[in-house]
Structure prediction request, 129 residues.
Amino acid sequence: MDTVGMLPPVRGNRQQLEQVLINIVTNGIQALPEAGGHLRISSRFDEKKHEISIVIQDNGRGMSAEVLENIEVPFYTTKDTGSGTGLGLALSRAFIETHSGQIHYESEEHKGTTVTILLPVHRSGAVSK
Prediction:
């Protein structure tokens, strides 16, 4: 059962979690078409799994299977030289895993991308490091 409008707090490193969201939202915005683009962010709490999911969806250019396989490889980028380091998504995975979470990507060329972040709600208040 979902609790509408109420998300329990996630304990962790605020700067790391903010950076993950900034990386993913920035990439999504950069992939949007000039007209008719949208980016949607939603969240929910799954009481049975005791985890929060954050879903970021865009209707941007999407990624090929090859790009999707490599997006978390350090220094891999599809951006023009000087426009990206290729570290944002690799660091994002590391930060989420530090919080005992998971990050998943689904994408199809010309149809957009969905990124799902799963973060446990720690009952003890401790974050694994």
User: Anything to note?
Assistant: The longest strand covers residues 112-120. Strands lie at 39-46, 51-58, 102-108, 112-120. The chain has one domain: 14-120.
